[in-house]
Amino acid sequence: MRRHPLMRILNAQTVALAGVLLLNWFLFPGFFDIAWQDGRFFGSLIDVLNRGAPVAILAVGMTVVIATKGVDLSVGAVMAVAGAVAATMVVDGYSAFTAIVVALAVGTLCGVWNGLLVALLDIQPIIATLVLMVAGRGLAQLITEGSIVTFSDPHLIFMGTGSFLGFPMAAVIALVLMIAVTLAVRRTAIGLFIEAVGINRSAATFAGIRSRMLLISVYALSGFCAAVAGIIVAADIRGADANNSGLWLELDAILAVVIGGTSLLGGRFSIPMAVIGAIIIQAMNTGILVSGFPPEFNLIVKAGVIILILVLQSPIAQQLLIFSRRNAGKRSTP
Amino acid sequence: MNRSLRPLAATTIIFIIAYGLSVAQFPNMFSTRVLGNFLTDNAFLGITAVGMTFVIISGGIDLSVGAVIGFTGVLVAVLVSWFSVHPLIAFAIALVVASAFGALMGCAIHFLQVPSFIVTLAGMFLARGAASVLTQDSIPVNHEFYSFISTLYIKLDGGGRISFIGGLMLLVFVIGAILAHRTKFGSYVYALGGNATSASLMGVPVARTTILVYTLSSFLAGLAGVVFSLYTSAGYPLAAVGVELDAIGAVVIGGTLLTGGYGFIFGSFVGVMLQGLVQTYIIFDGSLSSWWTKIVIGMLLFLFIVLQRVIFSSSAPKLKHVRKLKHE
Prior knowledge:
The complex is a heterodimer.
Chain A (H helix, E strand, L loop, with lengths): L4 H5 L2 H16 L6 E4 L2 E4 H24 L7 H17 L4 H24 L5 H20 L4 E2 L3 H8 L1 E2 L2 E2 H18 L3 H10 L1 H6 L4 H27 L1 E2 L8 H11 L11 H20 L6 H17 L1 H18 L2
Antiparallel strand pairs in A: 1-2, 3-6, 4-5
Chain B lengths: L5 H20 L6 H10 L1 H15 L7 H17 L5 H25 L4 H19 L4 E2 L3 H7 L2 E3 L5 E3 H19 L1 H11 L1 H6 L4 H27 L1 E2 L7 H11 L11 H21 L5 H25 L2 H10 L1
Antiparallel strand pairs in B: 1-4, 2-3
Helix pairs in contact in B: 1-13, 2-3, 2-8, 2-13, 3-8, 3-9, 3-11, 3-12, 3-13, 4-5, 4-6, 4-11, 5-6, 5-11, 8-9, 9-11, 12-13, 13-14
């Protein structure tokens, strides 16, 4: 069944986003105000895009990993490693370009490591990526030698705080990455392969899909996305903080993917919806901040949203829905 | 030797070798003082690891334990310092709240059929958030009961002492081991982790067991929070951040299979001690930075995961068979 393109945009995620934004507007009337200043846009809405970009970027990689019935817990630690590499290299006198390329390569390598554990050693993804989640922050501290490496290279800082056509650079990078990966998986057969491996890996292998190679590439992509996010976060604060960079962001990224409707049991996935999930999370954070609630409520609200989604997605709720529809049908046709 | 005991033996042997090497380098490490401190410093982690072992054997995971420790610590501190409740009553309230919280998570996991990973993640946010809403600051606890507890210890030869909380951890491990290996509940947990469908067909009460496992895990996390509060004499909403990872690490290093259905309570004890050994070694060395702890524990995790893989794939020649089929 093909629906009208405009109708396809209208789904649970976009409605939820609109709801959160309207609620923010209700709590803080200036929420939609956008000002043009110093060649760029300013406003709460732009702030949501800017602050939500790192999680959105992580969510792009995480969606593809979760679609293969996996999960990548190491993205926060990989962010710290990539930020540490970029900052240390810039401080050591390398150009920003070299630093970024090496940091991206290191992040991708971390992803390949995860992929090798999952694909070749057949280790459960949660556990395989747990290794790097625990050790990664230690590695990052090894690179920065335990201190927060600060830098002033204008090109590297531009990655985090610059603007492109008036929009924050971080949001632009997230958008480009989202479009590129979506096109790569949806305009080729790769997306189908990913879903096949996620639903039943051995069946997919017997059908001729090189599932090992695919899994390694998927984790490599997640590592790459984590490195991009790590560079942006480091550039934003002009320093690499091995302890706090990307801390708990893996959980936000997983949450964004789940809000985006991707099944944790593999198979069905949508990258743009996961990015919208990331924006919903950030809109809630910003909403709580601008409306004057104490930031401690943030976690409770987040937990409430997860519980709501879980209840709505659960088989019992689906059955109740069918049941009530049937009952309604019976009553109208006696 | 029984094949199923191999991972446990491997962990124990690695601990003995590692401890032997450390003693060879720093002879002072072989003293009852160091061993006593192992128990005291890791008491809250050990108690948490017992609960985590049950959850992992049942085929799930509990990410909320660190947050529950933080929440119980804050709750106890608030009750004792602000409302001048006697610590023992505060402990009881905190344990009841923690157990109810775990039971709720268990219900959500069973009745909503959601992966435990996501439910306990929500639980983690909720407990951490609730603790932060109660207070933002560290609340000190000054009560004569706390000083009384710290005077309770068993003296050992050589100046070492088993403190009250260290002894409590040992007791929890013993009770946990009996519960897992010698009771009906224990065999239900193993059956559930082995294969939930077969378990329910065999008549294992799946709902009750699932809910009880998460209740137990949260109860023990609450107990760990009480121990943490006795250990630090304060309640802080950001206390014990990341302890869930240390606990999962200890359980895996202890030879418990993360897919469920297989594991030992005693293994988790060795896992906790091994993590304590790494930390103590780094303190003794003095020149190594604390971040080496994370790297070494990461490497240990990797080692044991690969080890489990090798042991279990040698007993189940499934993959080779598949490859052979392909070539034919």
